[in-house]
Amino acid sequence: MRRILIVDDDTDMHVIYRDLFLGKKEVYELAFARSVEEAIDKLDLTDFDLVVLDIVMGPLSGQYLFLKIREDEKFKNNAMPIIVASVLEDKQLTFLKNRDNTRIFQKPLNKEEFLCAIEEMLSVQ
Amino acid sequence: MNNNKKYRILLVEDDPDHAFLEKEAVNRMERVSEIKCVPTAKEALDLLKKNKFDLVLVDFNLPGMDGLELIKKVNKMKNAPATMMLTGLGNEKIAVEAMKAGAYDYITKESGYLKHMAQAVDSVLERHDLARKLDDTRRELRESATKLRALIEYSPHAAFMKDLSGKYVLLNKQASYIVNSLGRRNVPLEMSAVLSENDKEIIAKKNTKVIRASIMLEEQEMHFEISKYPVLGPGNEVIYVCGICRDVTEQKRIEKLKDNLIRDISHELKTPIAVAMMANDMCRRALEENDMDRIKKAQQILMENLLRLSKNVNNILSLSKLGASRNTEKEELFSIKDLISEIRKDLDYDIVRKNLEFRVDVPDEADNFFGGKRIIGTLIYNLVDNSVKFTKKGYIAISISLNDEWIELCVKDSGRGMPAKDMNKVFEEFYQIDTVVPGTGIGLTICKEIAELYNGSIGIFSEGKGKGVSVTVKFPRDRVKQKGSK
After folding, report:
1. What is the pLDDT of residues B406-460, one digit of tens each?
2. How many domains does chain A have?
3. Which of A12, A16, A59 sits opposite B418 (nearest CB)?
4. For chain B, what are the domain ranges?
């Protein structure tokens, strides 16, 4: 069982994500955070294998969490696989400099491509 | 000499015989259209006051005021006609005096002088014409130099000219301020390098250059655009390098504001579209499996996001109607209290439904605001609308306070709030990221744009989760006027 943390401030998106993973209940365990603060708390408590991260959220943005995971020495796994899933175009995401173990998706997500990317990222681990 | 020009001549001669002969001699000249003759200086002066003459021929021996005195007087007149002296034989001393007083020439009355006089008059008229032309040209030159100097001097842009060694030969007010302040606290030496940039190339290739530079001046980042071009001499060689330096800081600020607005707006449109499209996918998958529960859920998400999209579009349209710039709306004095009551009516439904307490605290001295009423209304509406949306019970409080620099509008609620621990970071982070406003819909984005248009700012504070949020908008103090003043 692989644990995935989905960080998105839109609860409608939580419902949609759950639906995307509907046939994969045996493979993935999903957890949701509505804000970056909530995500940080959850990451402290539980070990996750992958984070799906929206960028435009308030008050802390997804960029903050991305940098914390990648650069904060106190964070347990700086190489944590991250999927950035937002409506931003790639050219608006130039601040994501270190893109190792990172995939960028622009919403709306394509179910097959999205699940395929997760599979690839987690089997590489 | 102008071939067609005809001249009017005044003869001042008291001897009738001489007068007759002299008149005849001059009248025969082709270019003379009229000759008048008077016997005294007084009559001559009277005539000159009312009529225009090109030449005054003056006999020295006149009753009353003599010829020399008359010549002196005539030459002091504005647009004085040319003067010539007629003297008797042996009076050369007087002739010299007349010349000193401004006469062009003199003629000695000796035998055959009439013939000689015509030639002399001819040459005097010609010289007088040239002198007048020279005067006109000089005056025009002086006038155009004055105009040009004023134009350059009072230009809002810094204009300068340098010789080939790099020495400034012309600086207007703005430019001399910059050049004289070089190296001091307010203008860094860097500016000198900017002003000299490309000089060599301009001199060598005779081309025009536009230099863009950003420099910290008086602790503020300023943007300049300097157009430079060579000034060519008579031999088509470069003699000076001329430059006009424009301050484009404000233009840059507005451009950036516009870019941010477009970026924020497109984000607010893309988000509900993306969610709706994914909900539609979900609906399609659920349909294949005939899963009514999921279909209902997906359909609800779809509907909600279409509504959100429609609300955002309306909001954007209202912003564009208000004008992206405050310049498009007439600024006027209005009461903030009245404006808040109007807004309260629009939001009445939710306020009553949730049984929210609605507090307004606007001191009288802060009530008279000068600005675009509709655009400020939009700002307050969006802030209050946000508070109403996120407050399930308790209150919404709108207050205004004044200090020396700012008028501060604060909208506070007892709603869901946000964690306080990272509050400072939020804003640091927010400014560093420079991507998108972490907003609750486009409402806050619009508020930020409006505050910035008014050279103000917006801040969001919360004491923590569940402790409500307060949003403070600051405007420059001079937006508030005393009642009855403007």
Report:
1. 999 999 999 877 665 544 433 332 332 333 333 444 566 677 778 888 888 888 8
2. 1
3. A59
4. 7-147, 155-247, 253-322, 325-486
- For the entire predicted model, the pTM comes to 0.55
Q: Looking at this predicted complex, what is its ipTM?
A: 0.94
Name, in order, each residue with C-beta under 8 angstroms of B463's C-beta and a sequence gap of 6 or more.
Answer: B417, B420
Q: How far apart are CA B300 and CA B295, in angstroms?
A: 9
For A87, the closest of B267, B421, B423 (CB atoms) is B267
Which CATH code is given to the segment(s) B325-486? 3.30.565.10
Q: Which CATH class is domain B7-147?
A: alpha beta
User: To the nearest whole angstrom, how far is the Cα of B282 from the nearest Cα of chain A?
Assistant: 7
**Residues B7/B54, Cβ–Cβ less than 8 Å:** yes
Which stretches in chain B have pLDDT values below 70?
1-3, 185-187, 318-329, 418-445, 483-486
CA-nearest of A68, A83, A118 to B422 is: A68
Predicted pLDDT of residue B358:
94
Among the four given CATH numbers 1.10.287, 1.10.10, 3.40.190, 1.10.357, the one describing domain B253-322: 1.10.287
CA distance A77 to A43: 10
What is the least distance, in Å, from the CA of B446 to any CA of chain A?
16
At residue B15, the 3 state secondary structure works out as coil
* Backbone torsion region of residue B64, taken as left when φ is above 0, otherwise alpha when ψ lies between -120 and 50, otherwise beta: left
* Chain segment B364-411, per-residue pLDDT in tens: 988 999 988 888 988 898 889 888 877 888 999 999 999 989 999 999
Class of domain B155-247: alpha beta
CA distance B139 to B145: 10
What is the residue whose two structure tokens read 């601040």? A95
Omega before residue B63 within 30° of 0, cis: no
Upstream peptide bond of A59 is cis (omega within 30 degrees of 0)? yes
Residue showing tokens 């509709």: B374
